[in-house]
């Protein structure tokens, strides 16, 4: 299985002075934990980290330190996550028929989740890891007034990995580019093209490290796992 790791963000919500994936977390850069989970999976055979050129020296240093068996290449990212994934897709080898996409920022992912997604992708066109929402969700208008309370039983929080047949996802991305669609995940492009997206049970601990509090939670979880 081929894996793309979008890692070209700036970490603005983290309030950090550099890419949050380079921040230390229990003695290793955040991105190193994501890579180690991919390396530990039995299905991932090729990895591309999609990043900004300014971060490449740090990414190379991480790769040197980890000395992974899985081949890893670096791909130039774009201004948005959507653009970064597009560039990553263009950089896939021609032999790649299926692809998993996993945010570098979701560094608590497990090897089991990677393998579950790889296996499920053998029998579907597109999938996302997701978990049922635990909170009651409100639809709110621009004035801060609650307009609706959707049925929670139908609501799932999208995570990554997200997995797709490569040619289908490429054509969704191209269509999105032509029509100016702006989305926050790849499944949304698939949905807009009326292609089916299947749910794979995600993990409650598979957080996207977005703000400083997430760093503290992640450190606690990693300490429980590996400490
Ligand atoms: N132009 C971008 C923006 C984001 N990402 C990646 O997409 C993932 C999810 O994005 P997010 O958590 O929003 O990361 P940032 O964009 O870094 O955060 P922020 O929005 O707070 O700046 C991250 O692994 C991030 O590196 C990317 O590859 N290219
Ligand atoms: C892809 C994703 O992680 C699924 O939850 C999420 O949509 C990324 O969104 P962000 O807006 O870039 O944080």
TrEMBL record:
Pathway: Isoprenoid biosynthesis; isopentenyl diphosphate biosynthesis via DXP pathway; isopentenyl diphosphate from 1-deoxy-D-xylulose 5-phosphate: step 2/6. GO terms for biological process: isopentenyl diphosphate biosynthetic process, methylerythritol 4-phosphate pathway. Keywords: Isoprene biosynthesis, Nucleotidyltransferase, Transferase. It is an enzyme of class 2 (transferase). PROSITE patterns: ISPD (PS01295). The record marks 152, 208 as: Positions MEP for the nucleophilic attack. GO terms for molecular function: 2-C-methyl-D-erythritol 4-phosphate cytidylyltransferase activity. The record marks 13, 20 as: Transition state stabilizer. Pfam families: IspD (PF01128). It catalyses: 2-C-methyl-D-erythritol 4-phosphate + CTP + H(+) = 4-CDP-2-C-methyl-D-erythritol + diphosphate. Its EC number is 2.7.7.60. NCBIfam families: ispD. Catalyzes the formation of 4-diphosphocytidyl-2-C-methyl-D-erythritol from CTP and 2-C-methyl-D-erythritol 4-phosphate (MEP). Belongs to the IspD/TarI cytidylyltransferase family. IspD subfamily. This is 2-C-methyl-D-erythritol 4-phosphate cytidylyltransferase. The lineage of its organism: Bacteria, Bacillati, Cyanobacteriota, Cyanophyceae, Nodosilineales.
């Amino acid at each position: 299985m081929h894996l793309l790791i979008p890692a070209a963000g700036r970490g603005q919500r983290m309030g950090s002075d550099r890419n949050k994936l380079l921040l230390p977390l229990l003695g290793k850069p955040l991105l190193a934990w994501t890579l180690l989970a991919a390396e530990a999976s039995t299905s991932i055979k090729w990895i591309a980290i999609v990043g900004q050129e300014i971060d490449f020296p740090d990414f190379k240093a991480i790769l040197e330190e980890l000395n992974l068996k899985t081949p890893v290449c670096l791909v130039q990212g774009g201004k948005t996550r959507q653009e970064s994934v597009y560039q990553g897709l263009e950089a896939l080898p021609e032999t790649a028929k299926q692809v998993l996409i996993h945010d570098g920022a979701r560094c608590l992912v497990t090897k089991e989740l990677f393998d579950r997604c790889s296996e499920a992708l053998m029998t579907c066109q597109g999938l996302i890891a997701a978990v049922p929402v635990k909170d009651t969700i409100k639809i709110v208008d621009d004035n801060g007034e609650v307009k609706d309370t959707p049925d929670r039983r139908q609501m799932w929080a999208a995570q990554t990995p997200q997995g797709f047949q490569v040619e289908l996802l490429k054509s969704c991305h191209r269509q999105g580019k032509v029509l100016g669609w702006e989305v926050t995940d790849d499944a949304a492009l698939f949905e807009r093209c009326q292609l089916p997206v299947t749910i794979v049970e995600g993990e409650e601990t598979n957080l996207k490290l977005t703000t400083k509090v997430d760093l503290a939670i992640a450190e606690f979880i990693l300490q429980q796992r590996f400490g």
